[in-house]
Design a protein that fits this description.
The protein has about 400 residues and is of the alpha+beta class. The chain is about 30% helix and about 25% strand. The strands form five sheets. The chain has a six-stranded mixed sheet, with helices on both faces. About 35% of the residues are buried.
Length: about 400
């Protein structure tokens, strides 16, 4: 018994030291990463750099006066802060609800007011409302700056946070304060489930076919093929491709759309940060490779819309009519996260076949035409005159 007492005593001391050490580390905010228990997702070479994060996290979690703190909010704030250092408005974090909404939108359905927004000069700015959406019916226009949503100031907050305030369940209403041309006005917009075909088509006067693509979602290529099959059976003298207020969408979808109008050649070039390039080529299997084309564009034509418009013009397949496009020349990948959220990471620039990067000013139309003559007022009950569409019809008819 006497020989076992020292061992027992040492065991008690050792246990006490471990307990006390663990208690002290917890109270002092000792970074867990130093203990070798950090998650395997942290690369070994980044652990020393990342250690201050855990030090601050532990300090806030343990010593901040207003307890308990929200670990989810702190995590999402840290992610946003990390991405903000990249100074790229298109690289951003989406919390779970926003991620789900974005993926639903790519499938052709979303719940909200139906408007695409981007960060422009620190302001939440409308790129374009989706055609037929509550935002469209409420009169929101490209270039409108959204200043408030339900009394919350949107200036200076993240794009994701702003989008969450604007979106919401169908049947609810959001009260917006909008700035347009230096003047503000207020509008109530009722949210809805928005399920709108991305393509519509018809034959116009003077044997001109008309195709409207309002966004580039997953069903768009098949919808466009169906529309072109019907239109080309009418043997049109020309074709109008309307990409006005089309905020873009999937890059592969844009390539498929452009492919319908090109017999051969490059559609776009992806240029990565290391200078490497990936070239997308036409398949030669399109349904409208020879018919003359006029493409309608405006300041709401962005991203994938600019891919298509730029490719068709660079190959002398189309004339651009309207106003200068939005100017978004980067490509993002979508990554799902374990919390149900997601992150968009800019991984490349895209260039038109002739090497134009649209971020440097958008695409200037070949024929500059405003939608309506300045100061022109339609007759009571009449539709506003669409000068851009009229110009496209006249252009194709005069060929």
């Amino acid at each position: 018994m006497r020989n076992r007492n020292p061992i027992f005593f040492l065991f008690i001391v050792y246990t006490f030291i471990i307990f006390a050490g663990g208690y002290w580390m917890g109270r002092t905010g000792w970074p867990l990463i130093q203990l070798g228990v950090a998650t395997s997702t942290v690369p070994p070479e980044a652990r020393e750099t990342f250690a201050p994060f855990w030090e601050v996290w532990n300090l806030v979690d343990d010593r901040y006066y207003d307890q308990p703190v929200d670990p989810v909010a702190m995590t999402e704030g840290a992610i946003r802060g990390m991405l903000d250092t990249l100074d790229d408005p298109n690289t951003r974090y989406l919390p779970p609800a926003a991620e789900e909404s974005a993926r639903q939108s790519m499938e052709g359905e979303l719940e909200g007011i139906g408007v695409r927004v981007e960060y422009v000069d620190g302001n939440v700015t409308v790129v374009s409302p989706f055609e037929g959406s509550p935002a469209d019916e409420a009169g929101l226009q490209p270039g409108d700056v959204l200043r408030e949503a339900d009394g919350v100031n949107l200036t200076g907050i993240g794009l994701t946070e702003a989008a969450e305030l604007i979106r919401g369940p169908a049947g609810t209403t959001v009260h917006l304060v909008v700035e347009r041309n230096g003047e503000t006005f207020e509008v109530d917009v009722e949210r809805d489930v928005i399920s709108i075909p991305s393509v519509r088509s018809e034959m116009l006067e003077q044997d001109v076919g008309y195709v409207r693509v309002n966004r580039f979602s997953n069903p768009t290529p098949e919808e466009l093929r169906t529309a072109l099959e019907d239109l080309m059976a009418e043997n049109p003298e020309g074709l109008i491709l309307d990409l006005r207020n089309n905020p873009g969408g999937g890059l592969d979808t844009a390539v498929d759309v452009a492919d319908q109008f090109l017999a051969e050649g490059t559609i776009l070039i992806e240029r990565f940060g290391d200078g490497e390039e990936r070239v997308f080529e036409a398949s030669g299997e399109g349904l409208a490779q020879d018919v003359p084309i006029a493409v309608l564009v405006n300041e709401g034509s962005a991203s994938a819309s600019e891919v298509v418009a730029g490719a068709l013009r660079d190959h002398d397949r189309a004339t651009l009519i309207g106003t200068t496009t939005f100017g978004k020349g980067t490509v993002q990948t979508w990554h799902a996260l374990s919390n149900g959220g997601g992150v968009r990471i800019t991984f490349a620039r895209w260039l038109t076949p002739d090497g134009t990067w649209v971020t440097e000013g958008g695409l200037e139309p070949d024929i500059m035409v405003q939608r309506a003559e300045e100061g022109e007022e339609p007759a009571e009950g009449a539709e506003p005159q669409d000068a851009q569409l009229d110009a496209a019809i006249n252009f194709l008819s005069d060929r």
